Amino acid sequence: MGKTIGNRFGVPLTAAVAIAALAGCSADSGDQERSVAQVLTAAYEKTSAASAAKAELTVSMPESMMGGAGELELSGVMGWNPSVVDMSMSYPSGEKVRTRWVGDISYVDAGAAAAKEMDGKRWMKVDYAALAEKQADERLLSQMTGGMEAVDQDPAKQLAVLLDSPDVQHVGEEKIDGVPAQCYRGAVTLQQMIDSGESAKVLGEKKHDALVSAMKEARIKGYETEIWLDENDLPVKMDLTMRTADGEVGLVGVFTEYGIDAEVKAPPADETYDLMELLGGLEKQSGDRLEKPAEDAP
């Protein structure tokens, strides 16, 4: 069934998951009065308070994940308090779609062609909690969703995660789109996130435990992160590599206009079809065919 789902829903589902979450620096210089931990903590607090920003994202995935190897380009608004996304996505093929994310539910504009087949409904709804509950095979689920469906890769959360890295360091200063920025780099495993407790201090136990659970579900083993902070301790660029059981997933993000209004609403119900309901219908049809007795031979 996984192959069938991949063939039918590959483009819109990959668009949905490449969201509901990243280059070198010069010699060491910059903030000499604060420790790395103090800088990252301050950056987390300011970024978390900003709640949203404009983002330009490039997502790269291995062949084993839905959509295959290649890069996806996303542009639009993302927020993390609460978690929302409204972005356009471009595929290597040149195809473009729009995706909205509200909490754990994403909506993908599958286009006019899909609307003709779905009684005028062009938006596909994907409830990741329901999808995870239905799909018991974690490996297949990870491949279907690009291993990212339950992991919120917002810059605030990644700043917190970087605090768990045993080798995090200030690398130096570099200009990002003409803006002087300080680069910080580190790597962290899932087990180090559990053992360290530093990210839990800023995230709070509830958010920290939810993040760890989401990483386990998405089969993420750890992160390699570089992040560039401007003079206000806000990330202007993030280069993130997620080491997963299915290969490495890369996410490069450039962020501007922190604090922008990020009110994102679900599409109208009469323009939306539910992927879970559709899959349930396909399964029922498949079961009916299997259970139908063969006609007696003449």
From TrEMBL:
<dbReference type="InterPro" id="IPR029046">
    <property type="entry name" value="LolA/LolB/LppX"/>
</dbReference>
<protein>
    <recommendedName>
        <fullName>Lipoprotein</fullName>
    </recommendedName>
</protein>
